[in-house]
Design goal:
By secondary structure, the chain is mostly beta strands. The protein has helices at 2-19, 31-40, 66-80, 331-335, and strands at residues 49-50, 53-54, 89-90, 93-103, 109-117, 130-134, 139-143, 153-154, 157-163, 166-174, 177-185, 191-198, 201-202, 206-209, 217-221, 223-224, 227-228, 230-235, 241-248, 251-259, 267-272, 286-291, 297-300, 305-306. Strand 18 (230-235) and strand 19 (241-248) form a beta hairpin. It comes from Hymenobacter caeli.
């Protein structure tokens, strides 16, 4: 009887051991196929081993020629090379960056940072003032009349003037004329003036025309907050310039130029006014230069030249100086 009990217990233990064994179950294959796949799946093969040990890579080093080495180095340099910079474009035109220095050295030196057209375009001849950069003289010039030489670098893009790392003036140029907002500061960073331009013409300027279609300019009187400020220009009925100059703080400043009516853009007289609109006002300006109808200089104050009494004909009537104030005040100024 005891022998039978021990035999029964042994059978129960064997049955439990068989039930705990893990088996691979597949719903798409038969048990014999799963066993064959499991037997063939090994982590180590003879081809993937090196001297009987597993290897993480089956790559083999191959001796490379000089040409291949050179090509590999060039490819590596090309991958490390920075991408090319984007082309500088302002208002749809390709531009280049420039610098100009003026004044003394150190803190007194003024630096201008600007952009100019990569390809020359003639500015608007009717604009009161056009600006360009002369690379030979390393200076920005202001042209009042006449076509510009194709060698001139027409200003186009942002502009900034600094002195001792402090901004004195900022603005934008468009095809050689002032555009958008322009601001001027003193050395302490205090805003002195703010002017808005629309392709060379002050936004608040009083502009008159000879024709009803507003195509033939007669006069441009610049105003800022009801006060004369900016570039002034007047024209004849034939479209030629008559006067160009500049106002500041309601007064004429700098050089004012009168042109011959019979010759296109030929200067007649140049008058000197105070350099600043905050200096005492001058009623009668000083004559600087005088020219004949053919453009011959007969008087120059700085060069001490005076040929006005010589046979070369000179105008009998002196040049007419424009009024100190505009003929017609803008509506904003009249309202005040």
């Amino acid at each position: 009887m005891p022998t039978f009990r021990w035999g029964a217990q042994l059978l129960v233990l064997l049955a439990l051991a068989g039930a705990c064994t893990r088996k691979t179950v597949s719903f798409n294959s038969r048990p014999d196929q799963a066993q064959a796949i499991a037997a063939a799946d090994t982590l180590t093969h003879t081809a993937d081993s090196l001297r009987g040990r597993p290897s993480l890579s089956t790559a083999r080093r191959v001796a490379m020629g000089k040409a291949e080495v050179r090509a590999a180095k060039e490819k590596e340099k090309e991958a490390q090379r920075k991408p090319s910079k984007r082309k500088k474009i302002f208002l749809g035109e390709r531009i280049k960056r420039g610098f100009a220095k003026s004044g003394g050295k150190g803190r007194n030196q003024a630096i201008e940072v600007f952009y100019y057209l990569k390809y020359f375009q003639q500015p608007n001849l009717q604009a009161p003032a056009r600006y360009y950069y002369d690379p030979k003289k390393h200076k920005i010039f202001k042209a009042a009349a006449g076509e510009l030489d194709p060698s001139a670098k027409i200003l186009h893009g942002p502009y900034k003037k600094l002195q001792n790392n402090k901004v004195l003036e900022t603005g934008f140029y468009a095809l050689g004329v002032k555009h958008l907002r322009w601001e001027r500061y003193d050395r302490n960073g205090t805003l002195l003036s703010k002017t808005h331009y629309e392709m060379g013409f002050p936004r608040d300027a009083n502009i008159t025309y000879f024709d009803a279609g507003r195509t033939q300019l007669k006069e441009v009187v610049p105003y800022v907050n009801g006060k004369l400020e900016g570039d002034y220009a007047s024209y004849t009925a034939t479209g030629q310039r008559e006067w160009t100059g500049q106002f500041e703080n309601g007064r004429r400043v700098g050089v004012w130029t009168n042109f011959w009516a019979v010759k296109k853009n030929f200067r007649h007289y140049e008058y000197q006014y105070p350099e600043s609109g905050y200096d005492p006002e001058v009623e009668v300006p000083e004559l600087l230069k005088e020219f004949t109808r053919n453009g011959v200089e007969v008087y120059d104050k700085e060069k001490n030249i005076d040929k006005r009494g010589e046979p070369e004909p000179s105008p009998t009537a002196p040049g007419r100086v424009p009024p100190a104030r505009g003929h017609v005040l803008p509506k904003r100024a009249q309202a005040r």
